[in-house]
Amino acid sequence: MGRDADIQNLPASIGRDADIQNVPASMRRDVRLLGDILGQVIAESGGQDLLDDVERLRHAVIAARRGGSSPAAVDEDAARQADDDIAALVASWPLERAEAVARAFTVYFHLANLAEEHYRIRTLRERDTGGEPMRESLAAAVPVLREWLDPDAFDRLLADLRVHPVLTAHPTEARRRAVTEALRRIGVLLDDLAAGRLGASGRAEADRRLREEVDLLWRTAALRVQAMQPLDEVRTGTTAFDETLFRVVPELYRALDRALQGDQAGQGPPLAPAFLRYGSWIGADRDGNPHVTAEVTLQAAEIQADHALRALENAAIRIGRALTLHAPGLPADSELGAALAAAHRSYPQLTAELAARSPQEPYREFLLLAAQRLRATRLAGSLAAPDDLAYHSAAEFTADLLLLQRALAAAGARRQAYGELQRLIWQAETFGFHLAGLEVRQHSSVHAQALAELQPSTVGAGRQVSARTREVLDTLRVIAAIQQRFGPEACRRYVVSFTRSAADIAAVYELARLAVPADSAPPALDVIPLFESDEDLANSTEILDGMLELEPVARRLAGNGRHLEAMLGYSDSAKELGPVSATLRLFNTQQRLARWAADHDIALTLFHGRGGALGRGGGPAGRAVLAQAPGSVDGRFKVTEQGEVIFARYGHPEIAQRHLEQVTSAVLLASAAHRAGRGARAQRPDDQRPDDQRPDSGRGPGGGSTDLGAAPAGGVADTVPAEFRMVARRVDAAALAAYQGLTGAEGFAEWFGRVSPLDELGGMRIGSRPARRGVAGPAGLADLRAIPWVFAWSQTRVNLPGWYGLGSGLAAAIGGNTGGGDTGGGNTAGGDTARGDTAGGGLAAVQAAYRGWPLLAALLDNAEMSLAKTNRRIAARYLALGGRPELTDLVLAEYDLTRRLVLAVSGHDRLLGGRPVLSRAVALRDPYVDALSHLQLRALAALRGDAGAVSEDERERLERLLLLTVNGVAAGLQNTG
């Protein structure tokens, strides 16, 4: 690991490994530096013999890859023999040595990921040179928007703009917080060394500290000793706000304001609104998580408010101390003069102290007083601050800031009025006193049971109310308490999982009424249906029809400008239907919901429940926005962000701002295209495509809505051409048949448990939520949560949830001789496609749909990414553990078919052939992921073998080895669930 073999030892002439030869010099330098230090640390702590074993395995897996990336170019016998030799090497080590080797590769991945992140940051800085605006930036989007929309329409779009990320505690971040902190410190030192601003002694000290931190990272336990509790997750989530978001959000607004006003930005009232709002399920999502209680939700709200108020207080103190404008003659009858006079009457001692520290500096005095009031708000109820000093609401604090801004502007200090003070105003408008709106989620069956128990006949019969029902009522009372203390927006959204009818929504409103005394008003609620299953997606508009008839919903619509929210579940729909059919059904549902909203004069916000992995709706966020059904965004976009996604996107300020700019610019462009009626191919100009996502085929950015079963009736946007819809229908039917043919096979769930580390994932203690919902019914595939489903498949190197069924779907759409007969052609749809009838089909038709329809392009490109992370030979070794060769053959045949037809449609000569940056990232990691997979296979095979052949002590060691490799493979693949 002390050498640069990951770059030098792979031949440039074969497959996507050629991309490795183009590794930028700065990234190569960081990888080499960190690899050298890690090698030194390993030798110092474990001895040279440990480093020799690590190097032996590293060279072996690289050699096994030398056959090339294309299976057709590989000598399969030689490749299998190489894998057998690696397995023998791994099996020869004592378990203690195997653990140490697994740790070495895992730490290497953490360091390599860090080097790549810092290269990305440097690249962003280089691109932001003040010349041409970066692609997918707000500066690039604004001129396009002005071309498409007249000034009034443009102003309305800005006024309507709302981007609403929601952080969740779904357990997909495999790294311990201690590991991420160590990597953060290493990253700071890398920056110092790369900046060239240190002298010789400074560089020597930075180098010494870097070695110390890598040594500490090596000695830090990779696995958690104790399981995370919900409040641990809350505190972990708030670090994203503390370290990144609080300062990035106003930078994002400023970037938009510069795009709108140019050099005048910061010298007058901003045109950029505070369009971001953050939500959180952390500490509030109790669907299947018995550890999230009413008390936990209350404490989560208090923790978030403490962080928000501390951040606002610190910013107010910092800005206030610098606001030293001399103003000896402030008129007493001015707005600011009157406010200060009132403050002197109300808080004479405090204001006298502030005035003495700020003589003839009224602006400074006023803002420092506001900071003291924030402190009193944070400490409200304690003896440390009087209650009468506290703000009653965030709106009251914002009003004070706006008053100060008007006073500064009136005094001619416009730069001070609209500079740092404006940043604080934006922060207050975005985060309030609550930081992020807590969103409670619970399963519809829990509400149904609670209502049944609370019926007068049941209570009158003297039957006991269950603990779960009492918890439902306590939760609703806590929501009321949070609203009373921190305002309604602190916790007003209530998501109902598995919404089957409007009665499931009515149940929450009825329970809220029952939870409070008869003479008290229930908490203000926006009850949000979550449509997850195929049946629920199909019935979504009918359910919304029923919701409109509910009196609490009608009352809420009358008071909020007819705004309504509905959530779409990507994870469970993908687990039920497969990646292809779920994607197409969700698009269809979006289009129907957009038409429904237009017909009912509803401002509908669709809440996209996406995961980080491709099998759960993941992928590039901006591109996902542009692939939505036109009219379904319309200025509003809400999406979940979780686990490793939170830290990948918000772990560094510059990456966070880039991510938020990409999403926001996509929301603006998609919305403008719809409002301008521009239709297909208008949502993103070619120069808005990111560098590593621009296919060689020159695919243009399409647009349009579609109904997969029939042409839309009415509609809110131009439709996708009929030939695209024909392609989609054929792909959908065959892909669904293939996917459900596999997952519906007898004994599939048990087989999946044997071939993957599914049962052991709970031992990683990466989240407080159980792997299964446990609502009702036997444990099985339907009860399994989508996260461990995807996580376990990624560990087997199959990545099945990201692509399975697509090959059969493409074969059906292409028709004719697709080669299905020798690659598991039983998976392909029969009928007219088997006869070669290509009406509405054929390769050319599928390629045209790929080039012209963003949805299909994103589906295939994401599947291509998932296929690129699959290792067929190693996957076969996992699948063989299940003892079901017919299922193994089915999976591998579909992989072969999917890989070949995805390349045929995309026109690429190899996987990721049109995305060299991503290809390089995958190819750099592939051999080392292979090393960890072989170590994992050793442990998994032993655990799945004869139970009597393994002692209890050995079983514990094997499970530890397996979990260490799970952690490492997750780091290498850069995704979990």
Overview of the molecule:
With 977 residues, the chain is mainly alpha-helical. Among the domains are: 306-431, Phosphoenolpyruvate/pyruvate domain (de novo design (two linked rop proteins), Up-down Bundle), CATH 1.20.1440.90; 720-973, no CATH class. It is built from 39 helices and 8 strands. An 8-stranded parallel beta barrel has the order 1-2-3-4-5-6-7-8, surrounded by 8 helices. Helix 12 (335-346) crosses helix 13 (348-357) and helix 25 (570-577) packs across helix 26. Mean pLDDT is 85; it is low at 2-16, 68-73, 612-618, 680-718, 773-778 and 819-840.
Q: List the strand order in the largest sheet.
A: 1-2-3-4-5-6-7-8
Averaged pLDDT: 85
Fraction of residues in β-strands: under 5%
Count up the helices: 39
Please give a handful of descriptors for the protein shown.
de novo design (two linked rop proteins), eight-stranded parallel β-barrel, mainly alpha, single chain, 977 residues, 8 strands, globular
Outline the secondary-structure elements.
Elements: H1 5-8, H2 25-46, H3 48-64, H4 76-91, H5 95-127, H6 138-148, H7 151-160, E1 162-168, H8 177-195, H9 200-219, H10 230-261, E2 279-280, H11 294-322, H12 335-346, H13 348-357, H14 362-378, H15 394-410, H16 414-418, H17 420-431, E3 437-443, H18 444-453, H19 456-460, H20 467-486, E4 493-497, H21 502-515, E5 526-531, H22 534-538, H23 540-548, H24 551-559, E6 563-569, H25 570-577, H26 579-599, E7 603-609, H27 621-626, E8 636-642, H28 643-650, H29 653-675, H30 722-743, H31 748-755, H32 786-795, H33 806-814, H34 843-852, H35 854-868, H36 872-880, H37 885-906, H38 916-944, H39 952-973
Parallel strand pairs: 1-2, 1-8, 2-3, 3-4, 4-5, 5-6, 6-7, 7-8
Helix pairs in contact: 2-3, 2-5, 2-9, 3-4, 3-5, 3-38, 4-38, 5-8, 5-38, 5-39, 6-10, 6-29, 7-29, 8-9, 10-11, 10-17, 10-29, 11-14, 11-17, 11-20, 12-13, 13-14, 14-15, 15-17, 18-20, 18-21, 20-21, 21-23, 25-26, 30-33, 33-37, 34-35, 35-37, 36-37, 38-39
